[in-house]
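Subject: Interface between my chains keeps coming out wrong

I've been trying for a while to get a sensible model of this assembly. When I model each chain on its own everything looks fine, but I need the whole thing in one frame so I can look at the contacts. Pasting all components below, labels as-is. Any help appreciated, I'm running out of ideas.
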Amino acid sequence: MNDPIKLTIDGVEVEAQPGQTIIEAAGVSGIYIPRLCHYQGLKPHGSCRLCTVTVNGKPMASCTQPAGPGMIVETHTPHLQEFRRQILEMLLVEGNHFCMFCEKSGLCELQAQAYRHGITAPRYPYLFPQRSVDASHPDIWIDHNRCILCARCVRASRDLDGKNVFQFVGRGRHKQVAVNARARLADTTVNLTDRAIGICPVGALLKKRVGYQIPIGQRSYDHQSIGAEIEKSPCSASKK
Amino acid sequence: MAKPRVATTSLAGCFGCHMSILDIDDRILKLVELVDFDKSPIDDFKTFTGRCAVGLIEGGCCNEENVHVLQDFRQHCDILISLGDCATMGGIPALRNTIPLRECLEEAYLHGPSVYNPSGRIPNDPEIPLLLNKVYPCHEVVKIDYHLPGCPPSADTIWETLVALLSDKPVQLPYELIKYD
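Reply #2:
Try treating it as a single job with all components included. I did that and got this:
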C-alpha cells in the first residue's frame, strides 16, 4: 500500500511517497520547480501558478497536484519557462516594486525568480497602483505596494501561529491582504515572533529596525540563483 | 575604417549610471580605442554629428524634453539600451506616479513645510519643459533593444554589454551582472 510511486519528471525517473505532491517529489530528487506561494510546512495554496508543470501534456499546479503512478511530468520546457516569465512580469508591473531602496532586495523571492528567469524588464506597461503602508505596530510594518497575494502570511498566522491576523479582502485587482477585518496592525495580536512575519517572500511584511543588515554581495541571491540549494542536493537526479 | 559611435544621455536620472560608465576604470582607455563618443555628457556634444551604433539612455521620461531627446536617440542609434532602473521602470522619480501631478506640484511649490514662495504660483515659464502626467520607462515611449537594470548597473555589466555589441556577439550576461539594486 505504501509502495513508492514511480513517475518521470523531465525524463528522469523519480520516486514519490504516497501523498507527496509533484513539487515535493521533484525537490527530493534534486529537481527544482520554481514557486512563490508554496512554502514547505504550509498547506498548498496554488495561487501564484509559477510551479505550473505539464502532467501527461496537461498544465497543472505542481504544489497542489499529488504525484501519481506513471505520470509524465515536464517542467523545464521552453514553453513553461516562457509562461513563468510572463507570470513574473505581470507580478512586477502589478505592484510597486522599487528594488533600489527595498530592504528585502537580495533576499526577495520575487526578485530572485525574476533573476533566475533572466528578466531584464517586463514587456507589460507598469500600473503604478495606489496602495497603502501600515506602520502602526511598534515592531512590524506592512507595505501593500510590494504584496503579491501569495497568502503565506494568511496561512502561517492561521495554521502555525493560531491567530488569524491576516485575511484577503476584495476581488480581482482590488484584492489585498487585510489585517483583522480592516483594523490597523497595531490593533491585532501579532508580534515579532510570529511565523507569519518572517515568511513573506517579498518586502511586504517586514520587521522594523533590522533592514539592510546583510551587505550587498553576501545576500541570499547575490551570487546563487533561487532553487540552487535543491539542485545542488546530493541526491540530485538531473542536472540542467 | 571609422570607429563606431556611442551616444549617451541622462533623462530623469541622477547621473549615477554615467558614474557607473566611468567606473570601468582603466578599461575606458580600451573603450576610447573601440569607439568614438557622439552626443553625450562625457564629451559635452549637445547634438548628434552622425549615425551611432549604440545609444545608452539613463533615466525615464518625466517631461516633454525627455521624450524629444529619447526620440532623437531612437532616430540616430542602431541599438538603444535602457541603462539602469529609472530607464527600465521609472525608478525613484516614478514614486510620484501614484500621486496626481497637481498634488505633487502643490506640495513642491505651495504647501510643502519648507516652501518659501511669496508669489503663490506654480512655475509655468515656457522655457521649463512641461511635466508628463507620470514618469514613463523608456520602453513605453520608444522601442528599446536591451535593458540593463540596476541602481546603477555595475561597470562590468555595462562593459560586457558594450564589448559584446561592438564585436557583433550576443549579449549573454552571467547571473551576477543582472541585478535590480
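Reply #3:
Confirming on my end. Chain B touches chain A at residues 82, 85, 88-92, 94-95, 97-98, 134, 137, 139-140, 144, 146-149, 151, 175-176, 178-181 (CB under 8 Å).
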